[in-house]
Amino acid sequence: WNTTSLSVVVVGASGDLAKKKIFPALFALYYEGLLPPDFSIFGFARSKMTDAEFRDMIAGSLTCRVSAKDKCIEATEKFLKRCFYSPGQYDDAKSFSELNQRMGEVERGSGKPRSNRMFFLSIPPNVFIAAAGGAADYCSTKTGWTRVIVEKPFGRDSASSAALGRGLAAHLKEEQIYRIDHYLGKELIENLTVLRFSNLVFEPLWSRQYIRNVQVIFSENFGTEGRGGYFDQYGIMRDVIQNHLVQILALFAMEQPVSLNAEDIRNEKVKVLRCMRPVKLEDTVLGQYRSRVHGGRTLPGYLDDKTVPEGSLTPTFAACAMFINNARWDGVPFLLKAGKALHTRRAEIRVQFRHVPGSLYKHKFGPDLDNSTNELVIRIQPKESIYLKINNKVPGLGLRLDTTKLDLQYGNAYNAKELPDAYERLLLDVVNGDKRLFIRNDELEAAWDLFTPVLHESESRRVTPELYPYGSRGPVGAHYLAAKYGVRWGDLA
Ligand code: BG6
């Protein structure tokens, strides 16, 4: 960095994601001294704004995690001085040429002979390719690297995703493209491979021999709330399951990679995804939340959201059973479940182990033997934690058994009141050119292949989602799906 400046361009700078996540993450990196000394940030969007207005717009969302107030104010002021704004249309060459010129002026001002540029495309899919083209064709730097971060939705199915891939490839090399899935930047997902591959008490147990089923669960206690226009075109399977949950599953179930480098890890992820059968409609439950009166207040149903088309059948909840056809996982159900407007906000992985063969204590657990098996829970959020349910003797004179927890709470163990946001880790990785946590093209293809048939079938048959009340535990159908495979959802036990 002694000779090179860094320019970060947020395309779609006035959008929600940019305000809530991208600018705060960039600021956090700056504040922790992780951005190169000569960096500048450019906002690019359709709205007309001056640099000063742009700085005002983002100032409100910048926070310092750990710091004294005055230090934080000083850092915010310094950071904002490095932020610039260039308005333009996403499909307009001239707008990108103007942006390029602006960047050139600022970069020359830094006195560094070389410059690297990264673009974050935080824009609707219909202008994706145009903006990628604008960035690559008119704003590539001649003296360093140009990298482009793209955020889902990467298409709606295998065919549209492939078309998007071809569109990007016409302007950019694969090595320049960073497909972000922000779940991969979350602390407990980063930890997943550490937990598994560095602990002898887990690694040998990670197979069909000891694991009965695996559950990946995502729930939110709020609805689409004004985001219905976007959400309705995609639905929960495309919004959360095909990407975030499948990425978790791939990391969970992959074989040990040859090394920790990006290609080795991604090779294993693709391999395990390609061992999976596409999801079947009969192994899927779709739901949609309806309104509910609670505490004298009416919680709106999905169809009450003004941005949702009338009579929409888009699912806001989905659960599905998946199987991995390889020697390690043959026959083990992987149950995925995601929903909006449920009773709680939580994301976790639950690993239910098999029964102890020939257990001495079987009779102590009565007919409900399932409650006595070990369960490992990896709580991704909120209140990050890892706990293992074990059977233990209740202290005292009699012989009474109880299921209790070996409990690692991040808040206590690491004094980590607030962990870095996923976007911080991922943006830093882009600066460093580390692709471990980004999705490779073939991975994306494999993930779409798993869901395209069920999406097409449910849409062409106009499957009606099962209604569930806002704030409930979701449709009853999810229990039947689990029961079909002899499973009980751990989060509802
Ligand atoms: C996004 C989805 O990718 O992830 C949203 O589009 C969802 O619908 C969000 O709310 C959840 O992310 P997080 O980090 O808040 O769990």
What descriptive keywords fit this protein?
493 residues, alpha/beta, 9-stranded mixed sheet, 6-stranded parallel sheet, 13 helices, 17 strands, 35% helix, globular, binds 6-O-phosphono-beta-D-glucopyranose, NADP, carbohydrate metabolism
Please state the oligomeric state of the protein chains shown: single chain
Strand line-up in the sheet with most strands: 16-15-14-13-7-12-11-8-17
Q: Which ligands occur here? A: 6-O-phosphono-beta-D-glucopyranose
Structural Rg: 24 Å
β-sheet strand percentage: 15-25%
The span between the termini is: 53 Å
Number of helices: 13
Biggest sheet details: 9 strands, mixed
- Helical amount: 25-40%
Elements, N to C (H/E):
EHEHHEHEHEHEHEHHEEEEEEEEEHHHEH
Q: What structural category do the secondary elements indicate? A: alpha/beta
Shape: globular
Mean pLDDT: 94
Low-confidence stretches: none
DSSP, total strands:
17
